[in-house]
Write a structure and sequence with these properties.
This protein has 458 residues and is an all-alpha fold. It contains 19 helices and no strands. The longest helix is centred in the middle third of the chain and has 50 residues.
Length: 458
Amino acid sequence: MIDMVITAVYLVAIIILGLWGGRFQRGLKDYAVAGKEFGALVIFATMSASFIGGGFSTGNAEKVFLFGIANIVALWGFSLKEIAVATLIAPKMAGFPNAVSVGDVMGQTYGKLARVVTGVCGLALCCGIVGAQVGAIGVVFSVFFGMERLWGIGIGCGIVILYTTIGGMRAVVYTDVLQFVILAIGMPLVLGFGLYHVGGVEALFAAVPSDHLSLPGPEFGWLGLLGLFLVFMFGETLVPPYMQRLLAGKTASAAARGTLYAGLFSIVFFVITGATGLVALAMEPTLNPNNAMSFVIVSVMPPVLKGLVFSGVIAIVMSSADSYLNSASIAFVNDVLRPLKRKEMDDATLLFIAKLVTLMVGLLSIVFAISIESILDILIYAYNYWAPIILAPLVAAIYGVRRGTLAFVAGALAGVVMTIVWQSVLATPLDFPGLVVGVLANLIVFASVFSSRIYMQE
């Protein structure tokens, strides 16, 4: 009973903090990047809370339960990406002082078509990931409180939709900071109590299959593991929520430091959540892998601390869902609707539409979440809407390319076609992901077309 009270108090606190944080809004730019007012530590907290969603926590525990530590190594591709963005990309964001979205950066370089395509891809990516997180919310409420999954989805998603719709980016960031603190305390506690329950690290290693502790593991060959590592490296690189946080920093250096801290933190966090999956395997080998982390929490945590950890797991999922929900609305309004309208709309109208789209995406994500099986698989699938189409030209734009609409179109088509052919027609040869092939195809074609046009101009 005390654990339910603690969790209920936390949920009420999130609502109050979110609504308070979003009480002042002066238009779409404020709704998207909150006045560019955040320092390095806040960027670190909100970026960490955003990427540590259901896929990188409960999903990681599930996959390590099934396939071993290889999944942790694969997720370090994401960590390497964060560090690379912090050192190579974030310092360049000073060149886009008025941008509030990825589409603004792309449109400035490649024109209206690229801006709209970026908006559509960003909307598709964000909707898919919101759906995955909402599905995770349902699992958490079902396991922890014994309620029907649909009720859990409705309660958890309803709270996220409420404060994100009303409060925008400022509400998202304020709640992210609290959620980050809760999960940074809660997840290590779960692993600590879990290890104690199974008798320590040596007892854990003795209780799980040996192939779960070696590379490339029971599921992957070395090429497959490399491919998955690259999927996590490229899949979320510069996706809308992370770009918004780079653009929301007080300075480019503050955004860079915050991103670097988030990347370093993720290395440790993936070990913690993955090891929790091994603890679940040692405790109950016949367990449904989707419930690995929840099972450990329910089984080993004492009262009061269990309530704190319940709140932490809910925080993990909510903090990712609210970020992608906000970014979905910005992608549609700023990068699709605005460039297609002949007459510019006033700030009040844009803000109203952004809130309406946030509400609609949130409600539709509930429908999508009901059919979700594996959270991490949904994330990998959603990445196909982004990296093979947007990543290469976006990095080029950040590094100073100022023309090249034809190169963007050619690269995007090459990325889409190669991803589809590799995955659907050729059935993923050698288990190497089509997303990576699509990214490479985009890069090669984009660079070739761009270089040839420069040569012809000379």
